[in-house]
Design goal:
The complex is a heterodimer. By secondary structure, chain A is α/β, with parallel strands linked by helices. Chain A contains 14 helices and eleven strands. The chains are: A alpha/beta, B mainly alpha. The structure holds adenosine-5'-diphosphate and magnesium ion.
C-alpha cells in the first residue's frame, strides 16, 4: 500500500497559529447594570462630559477592589508636566499579589501613573507632583526617600524591548551587578532562576554569553522581564509590554504575565482590552488623567457601573 | 513637438550634469592617485630597513634613518592621548548626559567648537608661551623644549574633537537604555559607564582614532614645543623628535639625500594614518553588527 510522500508530510506552511483566546464581552444591547445620578444630565456620557469640562468626578471604585490588602496606595495623586496637568487626583489601591491592569485611551496618563510609582518621572524637566503614592506604607514621594533603593524594590518593563547592548547573562544580572554582587555562583544562580521564571531559559541557556541584540523581539521582551525580576521586586510595572510584538510573541508574554502574577504583584498598562481581560484580576479605566472606574476585571468587563466603561471596553467609544 | 523638445532639453541637461559630476569625481580621484603614486614612486625607493631602524648619522651624503622620528611620533601621540582621551571623553559625557540648565553645556559646547577650529600654529604658540617658557623659568634652564610640551599641545587639539564626537555618539544611544538602567536602581554614573558608554563604544572609539590620526599629522603645534631632535630619545623631558618635524627639516633643507628621506617619511606617516583609518572602519563595522536589533 504505497503512500504518497506528499500525503505523509504535513504541508510546511501549516504552522499552527495560536489564536489569542477570545474573551466573552458583553452583548451590545445588554442593559447597563447601574446608572448613577451623574447620568441625569441627559448626556450620553455624563462622567466623560464632566471630565472634559475639567472636573474630576468621583470614580466608581467597586467595593471588591477596596476591600483587598494592598501593597501600593495611590492617594489623590496629581502630576504636572510644566503647565500641563497629566494626573488629576488619582486614588487607587493596588492589590498585593494580584495583577492589576490600567486601561484607557492613548494619552490618558497610564504611563505617567506607572512611571510615578518608581519615580522615573523625576528625569523629566519641570515635573511636579502632589498627593502620595505609598509602597508598603512608605510614601515614595516623601522627603529624603532614597530613589535608588526604591527603584531596586520595583521592576519595570517598557513598551519597546530595551535590552542593553551586552550579553544575555549580563543583561539579566545587571541589577545585581550595580548593587555590587561579584560572586559568580550567585550571579549564575540568579540568572538561571530569573530566566526560568521568564520562560526563556531553555531557549538561551546555551548562548548566555552572546549579545542580547541578536534575539527576537519577543525574546528580548522576556529578557527584559527576567532582568526586572532578578531582584524579586515587590511590584512589577509593565508599560504596554506587548505593543511592539507580533500576536504569537504577545500570547507568550501574556502567558508569562499570568505565571509571574502568581509570585509577584503586577501593575500592567495596556491599551488592548482583550489583554486586560485575559491577564488581570483588577482593572482600572482611566480617562484624561482621571480614574473613572476600578473594580474586578470580570466586573469591569461584564458588569460595569458606568456606561462610559461599558462602551469603552466594547470598543464603542474611546 | 513642444513636449518632446522639453523632454529632449531635460534629458540633455541631465546628461550634462551627470557628465560634470563624473568629471569632477574623476579629477579628484586622479589627483589623489597622482599624489599617492608620486609619493610611493619617490618614497619607496628611499624606504629601506635602514630607514626604519637607523637614526640620523649627521652625514648629509648618507643621512641614516628615521627610527627616532617614528618612535617620537608614536610616543607623542600616546602621551597626548593618555591625557586627551580621558579628558575628552569625560567632557563629552558631561555635554551629553547632564541637563543643560545647571551644567551650562551650551556655552561649553560653543567653546569646544571654537577650539576645534583654532589653527594649529596658534596652539603651537600657546604651548610655547604656556608650557615651554614657564618651565624654562622654573627650572632656570635656557629653553625647555620638550616632548611633554609637544604632547600637551597635541592634547589641546585632541580634547575638543574627542569631546564633541563623544557627545554626538552618546546622544545616539537610545533614551530607553538610560531609562531601563535607572528603573533597575542604577545611579546616573552607573548608567553612563555600564550602559550608555559601552552602547556608544564603536562611535566613541572612532572619534578617538580620528583625533589620533589628526594629531599624528600635525607639525605646527610641535615646532615651538617639542622642537624636534636628531637623537633617538624616549625621554619626553628632552627636545623630542617627530616624523612631521623631521620631514619638515629634511624637506626644507638643501641636501638631496635628506630630501629623499623626507619622502620616505611622508610615506610612512601616510601608512600609519591609513592603518589608523582602517581600524576605524573595522571598529565601526563591528559596532554596526553588535547594534543590530536596536
Ligand atoms: N515627558 C513628557 N513631557 C510632557 N508631557 C508629557 C510627557 N509624557 C507624557 N506627557 C503628556 O502627559 C499625558 C499623559 O501621557 P501618557 O502618560 O504617556 O499617556 P498614556 O501612557 O496613557 O498614553 C499626555 O497628554 C502626554 O502628552
Ligand atoms: Mg503610554
Amino acid at each position: 500500500m504505497p503512500v504518497s510522500p506528499l500525503m505523509t508530510q504535513p504541508p510546511t506552511s501549516a504552522k499552527p497559529q495560536p489564536e489569542p483566546p477570545q474573551v466573552e464581552l458583553p452583548a451590545r444591547k445588554r442593559p447597563i447594570a447601574s446608572v448613577g445620578p451623574a447620568n441625569a444630565s441627559g448626556g450620553q456620557y455624563p462622567v466623560i462630559d464632566a471630565i472634559k469640562r475639567g472636573e474630576t468626578p468621583e470614580p466608581r471604585r467597586h467595593e471588591s477592589v477596596m476591600g483587598v490588602p494592598s501593597i501600593l496606595e495611590v492617594r489623590d495623586f496629581q502630576l504636572w508636566y510644566g503647565q500641563n496637568k497629566a494626573l488629576h487626583g488619582v486614588t487607587m489601591p493596588i492589590a498585593e499579589g494580584k495583577i492589576t491592569s490600567i486601561i484607557g485611551p492613548s494619552g490618558c496618563g497610564k504611563s505617567t501613573l506607572l512611571r510615578s510609582v518608581n519615580r522615573l518621572n523625576d528625569l523629566v524637566d519641570g515635573v511636579r507632583t502632589a498627593g502620595s503614592i505609598s509602597l508598603k506604607g512608605e510614601d515614595v514621594y516623601a522627603r529624603g526617600v532614597d530613589v535608588i533603593s526604591l527603584r531596586k524594590r520595583l521592576g519595570m518593563v517598557f513598551q519597546k524591548p530595551n535590552p542593553f547592548p551586552m550579553s544575555i547573562f549580563e543583561n539579566v544580572v545587571y541589577a545585581l551587578r550595580i548593587s555590587g554582587e561579584r560572586r559568580k555562583s550567585v550571579l549564575e544562580a540568579a540568572c538561571e532562576k530569573a530566566l526560568r521564571q521568564a520562560a526563556l531559559w531553555d531557549e538561551v541557556k546555551d548562548r548566555l554569553k552572546s549579545s542580547a541584540m541578536g534575539m527576537s523581539g519577543g525574546q528580548q521582551q522576556r529578557l527584559c522581564i527576567a532582568r526586572a525580576i532578578v531582584c524579586e521586586p515587590q511590584v512589577l510595572l509593565l508599560d504596554e509590554p506587548c505593543s511592539a510584538l507580533d500576536p504569537i510573541a504577545t500570547l507568550r508574554i501574556e502567558e508569562l504575565i499570568l505565571e509571574i502574577g502568581q509570585r509577584y504583584t503586577v501593575l500592567i498598562v495596556t491599551h488592548n482590552m482583550q489583554q486586560a481581560a485575559r491577564v488581570s484580576d483588577f482593572t482600572a479605566f482611566m480617562y484624561l488623567g482621571r480614574l473613572v472606574e476600578y473594580g474586578r476585571t470580570a466586573d469591569i468587563f461584564q458588569l460595569p457601573r458606568l456606561r462610559e466603561t461599558e462602551d469603552y471596553v466594547t470598543g464603542r467609544f474611546g | 513637438m513642444a513636449g518632446s523638445f522639453a523632454e529632449f532639453r531635460r534629458r540633455t541637461f541631465s546628461s550634462i550634469m551627470f557628465g560634470l559630476c563624473a568629471a569632477g569625481s574623476a579629477l579628484i580621484i586622479s589627483i589623489l592617485l597622482l599624489v599617492i603614486g608620486y609619493l610611493a614612486w619617490i618614497g619607496v625607493s628611499s624606504l629601506s630597513w635602514e630607514f626604519l631602524a637607523a637614526v640620523p648619522t649627521g652625514d648629509v651624503a648618507n643621512p641614516g634613518g628615521m627610527r627616532h622620528a617614528i618612535d617620537g611620533t608614536i610616543i607623542l601621540v600616546g602621551l597626548a592621548s593618555a591625557v586627551g582621551v580621558p579628558l575628552g571623553v569625560l567632557a563629552g559625557i558631561y555635554l551629553s548626559e547632564y541637563p543643560s540648565e545647571y551644567a551650562a553645556t551650551g556655552p561649553l559646547r560653543f567653546i569646544a567648537d571654537v577650539l576645534t577650529g583654532v589653527p594649529s600654529i596658534v596652539v603651537g604658540i600657546l604651548g610655547y608661551e604656556l608650557v615651554v617658557v614657564p618651565v624654562s623659568r622654573w627650572t632656570d634652564s635656557a629653553v625647555s623644549f620638550s616632548g611633554y610640551a609637544g604632547a600637551a599641545a597635541l592634547a589641546f587639539i585632541m580634547i575638543p574633537i574627542v569631546a564633541r564626537t563623544t557627545e554626538e555618539m552618546l546622544r545616539l544611544v537610545p533614551q530607553s537604555y538610560r531609562e531601563g538602567s535607572l528603573a533597575l536602581g542604577a545611579t546616573r554614573a552607573q548608567t553612563i559607564f555600564r550602559v550608555v558608554l559601552p552602547g556608544a563604544f564603536g562611535g566613541v572609539a572612532t572619534g578617538i582614532m580620528l583625533a589620533m590620526g589628526r594629531i599624528a599629522g600635525e607639525t605646527a603645534p610641535l615646532l615651538f614645543t617639542a622642537l624636534g631632535s636628531r637623537l633617538l630619545t624616549h625621554n619626553p623631558a628632552e627636545p623630542f623628535p617627530s616624523l612631521t618635524l623631521q620631514i619638515y627639516t629634511y624637506a626644507t633643507g638643501p641636501y638631496p639625500e635628506q630630501k629623499r628621506l623626507a619622502w620616505a617619511g611622508i610615506l610612512v606617516l601616510l601608512a600609519m594614518l591609513f592603518v589608523v583609518n582602517l581600524s576605524i572602519r573595522l571598529i565601526a563595522a563591528r559596532h554596526a553588527r553588535t547594534r543590530v536589533g536596536t
